[in-house]
Design brief:
This protein is of the alpha+beta class. The protein has helices at about 5-10, 25-30, 35-55, 85-100, and strands at about 75, 105-110, 115-120.
Length: about 140
């Protein structure tokens, strides 16, 4: 299932003008190398998805690619300005890869462009809990 970033913000009672939900993937996946990078990139993806969802700028991909015509997508390129350096681009790609691998996002390619959307796993509020000893 596809998630709504609007629902994530509402569940968290987050003021979107001041805060971005910061996922803590280790809450669901356990500790792993590079978790801070994945948390940061997934947080950016949730934020960008929220902005596009609020302004009704999500993309609909041709039904040849997606059997669910109601799925909405964001161009991966929307994240590039947030990670402008070459190291930033590698960090972005790592975060996308791990987020996809853990099932937090879907990624598809259409017309030579990559798109992502959020899965319902992002709506699990345990993902955003701060555990004792974690800062």
């Amino acid at each position: 299932m596809q998630a709504s970033a609007i629902i994530i913000y509402k569940k968290m009672e987050t003021d979107e003008t001041k805060y971005t939900p910061m996922p803590h993937t280790s809450n669901l996946e356990g500790k792993y190398p590079g978790e801070g990078i994945v948390n940061y990139i997934l947080g950016l993806m949730i934020h960008i998805y929220y902005q596009k969802e609020m302004t009704n700028e999500l993309e609909t991909i041709d039904s040849i690619v997606s059997d669910d015509k109601n799925r909405k997508w964001v161009l991966v390129k929307e994240l590039y300005p947030l990670t402008p350096s070459e190291d930033g681009r590698e960090t972005l790609e790592y975060g996308i890869l791990r987020s996809y691998g853990f099932g937090y996002i879907n990624v598809t390619s259409w017309n030579g462009e990559r798109y992502f959307n959020l899965t319902d796993k992002c709506e699990n509020m345990d993902l955003y809990k701060i555990k004792a000893g974690i800062t």
